[in-house]
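Sample pair:
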Amino acid sequence: MTFEEFLRVELDGLGKYARLLCGDRQDAHDLAAETLIVAARRWSTISRLEHPTAYVRRMIANRRIDVARRRRILKWTAMPDDAQLPSASDGTRPLSQRLFLDDLLRPLPARQRTAIVLRFYLDLSDEDIAWEMDVAVGTVRSFISRGLAVLRTATTAQDVRSYLQ
């Protein structure tokens, strides 16, 4: 499969995945674009993998974590919340649902957020999430458990599942 064929099939899903990890449409666009540039350069190696899509998702998650670390190190201050709101619907969900989901996931650390999105948005098993995040299965369970504990304070887990599906 060529990189162009891969993009035709997977670009929308990867974009939505990045959007859920970032909570901001523009940041997600930047994250996906930067990651796909790197993936294009390495495509001859990535295309030979058994699961190239999973590998690219892992690249996106790792880059997101790197960006979050860089921002903390530089003591970057975010724009006011109202400046981060998407200006238009991307057609995947009503805007109010996306805003609710963004607000709900925002307080989670990057790795917990990644584990939650992989579990409830992509419906991956603990083993698949562990492979994508390059951590132990027990660590995945810990990320999900701790992340859901934070989310329970805001709403029920069923509400979260209904917005992620």
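Residues 52-73 form the longest helix (22 residues).
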